[in-house]
Write a structure and sequence with these properties.
Length: 388
């Protein structure tokens, strides 16, 4: 097991990205500069593409872009769709909405399938919605970070394909934290970012494309320049990127992928599931209600209803100011009403325990009585059995 806990950062990042960086990644980031069109870059791109293929469960190409995760979403949409095409966006939170906003911005006729925040999309509802019109694509965030919900993406993909639509998936906050089986689930285009489970700073984004999906991009006419995946794919086959890439981040990506390989991908997934189970159990032991429905809870981020009378903005500030632990509040309509704990990347029991102690202190200070020891016992038990 890699020893990335040698030193816990302060503030400890328990937000759903950016995440804490393991030592090897920090070291790689501080290496000497190098030529972006030389053999070293070609070798790094080969190594990274292979590692990303494993994480994305695909034999297809994975394009590395210099941007935040939203760039990967824009690239995925504009490289595969045309203005005027009808697309269905699964919207149960901020990031499902963002997919729809991007497609609309580039001229798609976007219909939203509204899902109650905290719930996962019902594939039967999706099938019904897809019967109403001829859709070119379904857009869905696998892991809806704003609500802590995972949508049943394999069933979403089945429904989309049965209706003749392609499926474009946001895996920004879960790639590397749970299985993403692009080929097996027939996900056509999968987008991700560097600053979540991949344990890197923000700045790289990834788009995996299933081999069968590329032909769709030949007829796609949405405007694009920097985020043209066809162009990026041609360069990748020559061991390059079309424009100057973030060389130090790509060197660090290779280190992060080595780090994941050393722990073992399945072990990494098990650890994420165990930390999620631990956090969920501790919240329940504290008398709090989880925001996401049972059976659809994310392995990388847990959303919790703030107790009656406590504004989650204040709770988040209390933890940051008094305990050096950073968690997140709610976004949009959920501001003040929920808080979110990210448990992705390097996070192990030690960080979860520090967070739970801080949270118990914060909740008690703001008026919600709970017992830190009971929360810790519940977390340890659930984490060791891996059950939520
Ligand atoms: N999609 C999801 C599910 C996310 O969680 C995020 C960021 O939190 C994004 C997209 C946007 O990524 P970025 O802020 O890197 O552009």
């Amino acid at each position: 097991m890699p020893d990335d806990q040698a030193e816990q950062p302060d503030p400890l990042l328990m937000i759903p990205g950016p995440t804490n960086l393991p030592c090897e990644v920090r070291e790689a980031l501080s290496g000497p500069g190098f030529y972006h069109r030389g053999e070293r870059m070609a070798e790094l791109l080969r190594r990274c593409t292979d590692g990303l293929r494993q994480l994305m469960g695909t034999r297809g190409d994975v394009i590395t872009l210099t941007s935040s995760g939203t760039g990967a979403l824009e690239a995925a949409i504009t490289s595969f769709l045309s203005p005027g095409e009808r697309v269905l966006a699964v919207e149960g939170g901020k990031f499902g909405e963002r997919l729809g906003e991007i497609a609309r911005c580039f001229g798609a006729d976007v219909q939203a399938l509204a899902v109650e925040p905290g719930r996962a999309v019902d594939p039967e509802d999706l099938r019904r919605a897809l019967r109403d019109a001829d859709y070119a694509a379904v857009l869905c965030a696998f892991n809806e970070t704003s609500t802590g919900v995972m949508h049943p993406i394999a069933s979403v993909s089945d429904a989309a394909h049965d209706a003749g639509a392609m499926v474009i998936v946001d895996t920004v906050s879960c790639l590397g934290g749970c299985p993403v089986l692009t080929d097996e689930w027939a996900l056509d285009v999968v987008a991700a970012g560097s600053q979540k489970c991949l344990m890197l700073p923000p700045g790289l984004a990834f788009v995996g494309v299933r081999d069968d999906a590329w032909q769709r991009s030949e007829s796609a006419t949405m405007p694009r320049y920097y985020f043209d995946l066809q162009k990026a794919r041609e360069s990748l086959h020559r061991g390059q990127t079309p424009y100057t890439p973030a060389t130090s981040l790509i060197a660090a990506l290779a280190a992060a992928l080595d780090h994941i390989e050393a722990e073992g991908l399945q072990n990494v997934f098990r650890r994420h599931a165990a930390m999620a189970a631990g956090v969920c159990a501790a919240m329940q032991a504290a008398g709090l209600k989880l925001f996401a429905q049972e059976g659809a809870r994310s392995p990388t981020v847990t959303a919790v209803r703030s107790p009656e009378g406590i504004d989650s903005v204040e709770l988040v500030a209390w933890l940051r100011e008094n305990r050096g632990v950073l968690i997140s509040g709610g976004q949009g309509d959920l501001k003040g009403r929920i808080f979110r704990i990210g448990h992705m990347g390097t996070v192990r029991l030690a960080e979860v325990e520090r967070t739970l102690r801080a949270l118990a202190d914060g909740l008690n200070a703001l008026g919600h009585t709970c017992d830190a020891d009971e929360m810790l016992v519940a977390a340890r038990e659930a984490a060791s059995s891996g059950e939520g």
